[in-house]
Design a protein that fits this description.
Blueprint lengths: L1 H21 L3 H21 L3 H35 L2
Helix pairs in contact: 1-2, 2-3
């Protein structure tokens, strides 16, 4: 039973990581990265590392995508501002 759960978690990690790499839009990429963070947290919990899972949940599924979204927003604003000034 444990091996089956680990195998399913690994397949989900591989699928979500592939989706994160294949996504071209930065906003959607950040959202897929958040899903990857949640799936990795589940994998770590299944592998009996709940402390690492909680850290991954906080950083990988919340903070990193948030920083990416804020960065994309700032870059797009700066691009609009510089484009209209010329």
């Amino acid at each position: 039973m444990d091996e089956a759960v680990i195998a399913v978690a690994l397949v989900l990690v591989a699928a979500s990581a592939t989706a994160a790499v294949a996504t071209r839009d930065p906003v959607r990429q950040a959202l897929v990265l958040s899903v990857l963070g949640v799936v990795l947290a589940v994998l770590f919990t299944v592998l009996q590392a709940p402390d690492v899972g909680l850290s991954q949940l906080a950083v990988g599924s919340a903070l990193t995508p948030l920083f990416l979204l804020l960065t994309v927003r700032k870059v797009r604003r700066r691009g609009r501002r510089e484009g209209s000034g010329r």
